[in-house]
Every structure is written in C-alpha cells, then in structure tokens.
Amino acid sequence: MAQRASRSDFEAFFPTLVKDVSEHVQQYNLPEDALKWFQESLKYNTANGKLNRGLAVLDTASILLDRPLNQTEYTHLATLGWLTELLQAFFLVSDDIMDSSHTRRGADCWYRRPEVGMVAINDAFMLESAIYVLLKKYFRQHESYVDLLELFHEVTMKTEAGQLCDLLIAPEDRVDLSKFTYEKSKFIMTYKTAYYSFGLPVALALFYLRLATTKNWDQSHDILIATGVYFQVQDDYLDVYGSPEEIGKIGTDIQENKCGWAINEALPLCDARQKAILEENYGRKDKEKELKVKQVFKELDLPQRYLDFEEKEVARIRQMIASIDESEGLKKGVFESFLNKIYKRSK
Q1: C-alpha 1: how far from chain center
Q2: Residue 182's CB: how many other CB atoms inside 10 A?
C-alpha cells in the first residue's frame, strides 16, 4: 500500500543536499563569506515553501509502486523532489525581481533584503546550477540520467517561455486590455505553471521507476496540464480574494497588470461603463484604483463564476482520470492525489 511522504522527513533530508552542493563549490576555493551567502540563499529560497512539488515526487512514486519506498528509493526520490523545489526557487527569486514583488511566503522577497538587492539575480542562477550538480552526483549512473537531465532543461525552457509571454502581453508600464484574451492567459498558465508544478513531479517519478512509456506519458500529460491550469486559476482568484495571512503574500496581480483569470473573465461580461473603469484603473500601482477594479469584479459576480468554473473543471478532470488505462503501470491514484490536495484550497 502506498504511503504519503512526511514533510518533516523530507525537510530533514535537505541539509544533506546543502552539504553536497557546498562541498562541490568548495572545490573552487570559494571564499568562506561567499559560501555562507550561497548556503543562506539555498535555505531561505528553497526550504520555506509548502514543498508540494517536492513531496509530490515521493507520493507519486509510492502510489505507482503501491508500497512504501525503501531507503535507496527514498534517498533518490527525495533528491529529485528537492530538485523541483530548487527549480521553483530559481523561478521565484527571478519572478519577484521582474514583478517588483514585496513579499513571498509571508516574508520579504530575497532581493528586498537590504543586504541582497540585485545580487539576487546571480543567486537565482546559482540555485538553478545546484540542480545539475546534484543530478550528476546522484543519478550519473542511472539509466534515465539523460532523460532526467533533458526533462529539467525542457521544463525550464517551457516555464521561461510562459514568463516571456506574461511579461510581453502585460508590461507594468503599458496597460492595453485589448491584448488580453483567455487563450493567451491559458498559454501562460500552461507554460508558466502547469509543466513544472504538475508535469515535472510525475515525469520524474515515471523516469526514475522506468515507467515513462509513451502511453503512460500521453495519458498523464493532458490530465496534469488540465490540473495545472485549474491550479493557476485558483492562484489568480486567491490573488484577488485571498487574505495575505492565508496565501503568504500580498496580492498584486491587479496593480501589476497581470493577464490572469479574473480580468479575462471580466472583460467579455462588461458593459461600456464597467469596461471604461477597468481601462482607467487596471494595472495602476494605486490602492484606490485597485479597489475600483475589485468593485467591477464584484458587480460581475466573479466569486460565483469562479465557483461554477471550479465545479465544472474538477468534474471534467475526474472523468479524464476515470478513463486511464493502468496496463503499463500508471495509476489513477497519482492524479486523484493531486486533485484532492488542491480542490477547494484557500492558500
């Protein structure tokens, strides 16, 4: 029987990887103060999140095996789990700079710490590089090493393509709501979130366990992307309606001119007056203007429209899961686990 991964055990494994990466850079005779800086960056930016992506690698493997992991499997899969967290840390440090964000995970963004500033750009690069140091150390002899290596490169490129689209469609200094469409928003959700948050953990487990057949991945792909888009719609909704205490950050999508779910849901529903209000106030770094946008959202009953979307989309995803062919080792429980974790979430 599968066993859900313990967060505390997973967290307890992280110092081993910090030690591994530290020993690697010490080969360069890195000065002690620079080493301590790097270690602080690793801990601050990687270990303080919800760790859902990393834990999902372990949970997925246990479900696929239908038993608890042995010690060797746990070591390898926990490492892969932490590599997903390092990848996310790289993305988030960079994204916070690009978005001029203030808080992340209930604390100051790394770049906003007085002693850090734009050094954070290089810190982001080093977080990414740590992935490949650890991948080589633990998986160089694994028959799927090249697949794992290429997977991280491909997911990184896809996520960066999603970020590029996000930045170009909705620059903070030029608001043009005529450029916004749900199709563009869905591309951003798919490439900026779904691939690395949902596709990557499952693909890592499949490759490690040598179950990454074409059939298994084709079935997984569509369900994971649909789940990832649903997750990002939740994020967009919570950015507008979630409390900072619950979501761990101050919602900024309206002021930052984000091409997200809320604005794309609202635009086709607006009358002339409402559209004029959105065009005048959306994407401005002004709290009063943000409140005017939220008032239009309230008039359009966006909270209820979100609840309707959620029920319809979850029902569709459950139908997709029910149709999975498990003959080559894939398990419906993998996808049920993802969906159960995020359905009706509030943070």
Answers
A1: 28
A2: 15
The catalytic position among 192, 284, 331, 332 is 192
What is the structure's pLDDT at 219?
A: 94
pLDDT of amino acid 306: 97
Q: Which amino acid is at 86?
A: L
Residue 191 DSSP label = I
pLDDT value, residue 347: 80
Read off the amino acid at residue 171: P
- How many alpha carbons lie under 13 Å from residue 141 in its C-beta half-sphere? 3
Let me know if 166 is a catalytic residue.
Answer: yes
Instruction: Tell me the Ramachandran region of residue 251: left when phi exceeds 0, alpha when psi lies from -120 to 50, beta otherwise.
Output: beta
Residue 103 pairs in a beta bridge with 108
Q: Report the amino acid identity of residue 323.
A: S
- Spot the catalytic one: 96, 123, 166, 253: 166
Count the neighbouring beta carbons within 10 Å of the beta carbon of residue 206.
Answer: 24
Decide if 236 is catalytic.
yes
Regions of the chain with pLDDT less than 70: 245-248
> Tokens 């609202």 identify what position?
266
Q: Which of 38, 90, 207, 335 is catalytic?
A: 90
Task: Please say if 231 is a catalytic residue.
Answer: yes
- pLDDT tens, residue by residue, 94-126: 999 998 888 888 899 999 999 999 999 999 999
Strand partners, 107: 104
Respond yes or no: is residue 50 known to be catalytic.
Answer: yes
In this prediction, residue 170 carries a pLDDT of: 81
Q: Is 180 among the catalytic positions?
A: no
Residue 145 parent element (H or E): helix 145-169
Decide if 95 is catalytic.
yes
Q: Which of 104, 258, 284, 332 is catalytic?
A: 104
Residue 70 pLDDT: 97
Please say if 136 is a catalytic residue.
Answer: no
Active-site residue 235, yes or no? yes
Structural contact between residues 223 and 321, judged by C-beta atoms closer than 8 angstroms: yes
Catalytic residue among 59, 235, 239, 253: 235
- In order of 133, 143, 145, 279, the CA distances from 140 in angstroms are 10, 8, 6, 53
